[in-house]
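Lab notebook, page 48
Experiment: co-folding of the full assembly
Goal: obtain a model of how the components sit together before planning crosslinking
Operator: M.T.
Materials (sequences as entered):
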Amino acid sequence: MIQNELAAAISTAVSKTYDVKPGLIEVDYAQPGFGDFASNVAFGLAKELKKAPREIAAKLAEAVKHDSLERVEAAGGGYINMTLTDEGISRLTETAPATKPASHKGQVVVTEYSDPNPFKVLHVGHLYTSVVGDAISNLIRLSGGKVHPVNFGGDVGLHVARNMWAMLKDLGGEKPEKLADIVVAERPEWMAACYVKGTQAYEESEEAKTAIIELNKRIYGILAAEDHKSPLAQIYWTCRGWSYDYFEVFYARIGTKFDKYYPESMTAPLGIQTVQKQLENGVFERSDGAVVFRGEPYGLHTRVFITSNGLPTYEAKDTGLILAKWQDYHFDRSVVITGNDILEYMKVVQKSVEQYEPELAKRSTHITHGNVKLAGGVKMSSRKGNFLRASDVLDVVAEANKAANGSADDVTVLGAIKYAFLKQRIGADIVFAPEESVSLEGNSGPYLQYAHARARSILGKAADAEHGGLNELEDDERSLAVIISRYPDVLDRAVDELMPHHIATYLYELAQVFNRFYEHNRVIGDSRESVRLRLVALYAGVLKDGLGVLGIEAPDRL
RNA sequence: GCGCUUGUAGCUCAGUGGAUAGAGCAUCAGCUUGCGGUGCUGAGGGUCGGAGGUUCAAGUCCUCCCAAGCGCACCA
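Observation: model returned without errors.
Model output:
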């Protein structure tokens, strides 16, 4: 990396000029107008050398030597500003699109995200977390990791029992044959409606609550006995299948692919078994008939893993999941992406696992994000239920795009949504504005898709022309070349922090620099056509690559 | 009460201990009728939630306080 080379050059200059051993030398991008790179090493040396930073910088500027440097000068209170030769810039720019981080090279990485519960609908949060999870998976993939995206879902537990209870009411008893009356398109809605009814009944009626708790035990029984025959089992398995079909259709539409689904029913036995074994080893303890992990010694709180009824809570199922992933993949790294509401909960589970599988815990990362809020009280509430379905978001954005750009194509709609989600840093709640997300003016996905298509169009018009080397660059050309050359650094940082928004921020800046260039410089027919075509090609390549990391398509034509 | 997350322009957000804190939207003034409509140039708008501290240097690190959201035992 050029920064490292420049740092080494400065280091050499320091030891040659002064009789001191320099510490870690950082070389940063210079601010516009101050060259390409800058170092503040003189500030740090000032105290030790008892000289003014400005004076030190001036001396060092004379002593720094590197083949790619056009000039070095001292500026400000003690900065050393460095400007690369065209050749130096050119080399960086030419290699930029293909230069990728290698931080996960050869690693097996399991990413887990989305995690919808069967028997329930996908809401806007699932859409957001899926988009984030895909982008993070892509970051790991491009840095050399073999990524296995997996999906965890609660196909058993009280929420399922509440749902099943209402479904049985609706079917008039345990009559699986009645399910045939529900057409495919209505299945998700029907199940969602039953969930609302069941939840209400559970809260409002003691009688229903008792019945639901009883039903919950029976469902665990179906799973334990691998019962597929009894009427109740038939209803359970059929509707569970409907849910997974519905998930698959949705994921296919947004471009998400999972290697494996881990239903809770599958991880629960391993979880219970492990917790019981570690109960004997003293990791867990009994309290009021339940099995709990005491988090207080670690600054956390106590959580129940197995209830006094002997049923596993989410904690035990999650423990089973963590161990199942470990057994299945023997991963070098595990990344779990969830909402930030379960951060504290997850710390307790992680801490418990750390007690008996420290290596596993060490390799695990938990990334949390906020919730999606709607801008300016936009009405997007669905007909039933008090929340926003994932499909509603796609519909609303499609409508907005039709109104703004006359098309409701999924490439643009998904580009708009994904970019709007990913341009913000992961962590806090985000505000989603459908109209803004599809606008071709301003910082949006469709804007970048359009920018890419236009660049391709220019290249298409001059398909037979030769592209020249990037030499003797004019100012506007150089600015464009410089920002293109910074793409690998952006990827490095995004991968390092697992933060896709760095890429979004960069791509928009890139497009802005290009527009500034393009406004004042003709490409085709100009005497500098060959150089400029080369720049446009590199620019389009980086745009497409970057959008690809965000999971956004960049077709040559829109 | 304790913990976590967050607090930067009217709104939505970037910001790697370094130079004058930046974008988009909105507002205002100009420019551009041809490589695809996205544009370009400029202006106004900031006690970086508040107060201390560390540092040559703090939006960034530390402490305390304030506000918002979320979480704190048999739900997920």
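Interpretation: Residues 231-254 of chain A form the longest helix (24 residues).
Next step: discuss with group before ordering constructs.
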